């Protein structure tokens, strides 16, 4: 989570609200410093959302085959997204600004311990959401296995996998508390990371993508599940739990 120090890399006071600190008013200056990160993240967000949408998958199926899209596209999409976000954007964002990895504030010991606990909780939340959504299906591994089995004559075409969020709606477990537990876990992970300029700028980019990405994902889910999903929306918050309003278990 970074090394905690009391001073900026340039020797200035971390409370200084100059143009190169997140606490300053010079937003355009920060955007100018991180224009490559903003551009790359914007491109990633657009392509990531496009690749998950049904119209794009229908277009891709018309140029390849429905069999390819149903069984192999998901894994390609997930691996490409992982590489783009962590190997390209991550290296670009943190690699171009090594001096901005210095913490801007020094936490008191009690707050540091609370943040470590919350940081570990965010990791557990992300993994629990992966497990509930069936991480092998989420990454497309099951679909690839099914496709290979059909190609090898080991499975019957047409008896495919019921996909999470496409063929059945899950409203229990973590999804009975918030509609987007993976996104919430990612936001909490960044919020409890070291308060460096790099981390804070990336947090802002992630938060914007989280809101926009969730909006388009929910439009897709409404098209698929209709009133069932809209009822779910009324009972369960997108990112913050609504205590006292819980959906019936096992909505399918």
Mind sketching the topology for me?
Blueprint: H1 27-33, H2 35-52, H3 54-63, H4 66-95, H5 109-132, H6 135-138, H7 141-151, H8 181-191, H9 197-225, H10 227-235
Question: What structural keywords apply?
Answer:
252 residues, 10 helices, globular, disordered N terminus
- Percent helix: 55-70%
Number of domains: 1
Gross morphology is: globular
* Percent range for β-strand residues: under 5%
Count of distinct strands:
0
How far the N terminus sits from the C terminus, by CA atoms, comes to: 40 Å
Q: If you compute it from the alpha carbons, what radius of gyration comes out, rounded to the nearest whole angstrom?
A: 21 Å
How confident is the prediction overall: mean pLDDT? 84
- State the order of secondary-structure elements, H for helix, E for strand: HHHHHHHHHH
Largest sheet: none
* Low-confidence regions: 1-24
Count of DSSP helices? 10
Which structural category do the helix and sheet elements fall into? mainly alpha
């Amino acid at each position: 989570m970074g090394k905690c120090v009391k001073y900026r890399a340039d020797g200035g006071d971390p409370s200084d609200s100059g143009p190169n600190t997140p606490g300053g008013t010079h937003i355009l200056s920060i955007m100018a410093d991180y224009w490559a990160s903003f551009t790359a993240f914007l491109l990633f967000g657009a392509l990531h959302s496009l690749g998950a949408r049904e119209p794009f998958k229908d277009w891709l199926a018309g140029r390849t085959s429905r069999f390819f899209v149903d069984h192999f596209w998901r894994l390609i999409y997930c691996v490409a997204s992982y590489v783009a976000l962590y190997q390209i954007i991550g290296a670009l964002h943190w690699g171009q600004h090594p001096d901005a990895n210095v913490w801007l504030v020094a936490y008191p010991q009690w707050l540091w311990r609370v943040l470590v606990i919350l940081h570990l909780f965010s990791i557990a939340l992300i993994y629990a959401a992966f497990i509930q959504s069936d991480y092998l299906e989420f990454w497309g591994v099951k679909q690839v296995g099914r496709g290979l089995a059909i190609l090898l004559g080991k499975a019957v075409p047409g008896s495919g996998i019921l996909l999470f969020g496409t063929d059945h709606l899950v409203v229990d477990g973590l999804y009975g508390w918030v509609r987007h537990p993976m996104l919430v876990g990612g936001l909490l992970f960044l919020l409890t990371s070291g308060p460096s300029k790099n981390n804070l700028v990336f947090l802002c980019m992630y938060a914007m993508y989280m809101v926009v990405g969730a909006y388009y994902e929910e439009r897709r889910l409404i098209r698929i599940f209709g009133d069932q999903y809209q009822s779910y929306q009324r009972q369960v918050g997108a990112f913050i739990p609504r205590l006292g309003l819980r959906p019936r278990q096992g909505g399918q």
